[in-house]
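Protein details
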Amino acid sequence: MKAYVFPGQGAQFPGMGKDLYDNHVIAKELFEKANQILGFEITKIMFEGTDEELRQTKVTQPAIFLHSVILAKCLGDSFQPDMVAGHSLGEFSALVANGTLAFEDGLKLVYARAMAMQSACEAEPSTMAAILGLEDQVVEEVLSGIEEVVVPANYNSPGQLVISGSIKGIDMACEKLKEAGAKRALPLKVGGAFHSPLMEPARKELAAAINSTHFHEPGCPIYQNVNAQAVSDPATIKDNLIAQLTSPVKWTQIVQNMIADGASGFTEVGPGNVLQGLVKKVDREMPTESASV
C-alpha cells in the first residue's frame, strides 16, 4: 500500500513551485487561480521573493499548500494513494489531494488559518523549542511540573519532540529538560506557540470557517494529527481538523500506524524532504521518495 505524506510549515524555500508553473499547464492554471482567490500575487513571492518574505505566516502556509497540492495534481494518474497524512498545515494539502476538500475551499481555509494564527501570535508572545535525545514520556513528565503554559506540540520521531508555550515556559522547560538528559534543547525561530492552548483564539476563528465548508467523502483514509488514526468520515475529519490547532501533531504515531496498516513505502509531496527523514527514524528500512513530475 502506498502512503503519501504532505509537509508543513518550515518546508518553504525561495523559488518553490516555479518549475511546476513553467512546465505544466494545470500548474499554471491553479497558481493563477490562487492569485485571484487570495487577492495578491502569491506566485510572485514564491518565485521571486526572499527567504524573509516567504516566512510571513500569510505567505508561508498558502505557499506550501499550493506547492504540495499542485504537485499532486501534476502527478496525474500516477497519484493513486491508499492512505495520506499531512504534518500540521500539510493535513489540509492531504485533504485536497484525497478529494475531501475542493482546491478553492482548501486554499481559503489555509489562508484563514494563517491569518487566525498570526492574530493569536500577536495577542500573546510565545514560541517553540525542539527537544532532542529524550523519550517522549520523560519530556511529558518534566513539562507537567512547570507552572507555565508549555506542552508537547510535535511528536516528530523517536527522540525528537517539539514543545510549545509561553516564552517563560519554554525557557524554563529547556533548562529542566537539559538537566533531565536532553542532548539538545533548541529554541525555534517561529512566530508563536503553535499546537498549544495559546492558539485557542485561532481555533475558534478557524472552526467557523471549517464548519461552513463542505467536506466530501475522501478517496482514501487520512491519518489525522490529533489521534494518528485513519479517518474517512467527513464530520469526524472536520472535528479533528478544528482540534488540530490546540493539540499536538502525533507524527511518530501516524507513521507507526500507517506502517502497521500496510504502508509499503512513503512518497513526500511538496517542498523539501523533512518527512522522509522522520519516517526513516521510525523505520530505517521503509522506502521513501520525493514526488516528482
Q: What stands out?
A: The longest helix spans residues 103-123. The chain has 13 helices and ten strands. The mean pLDDT is 96. Residues 11 and 272 are 6 Å apart (CA to CA).
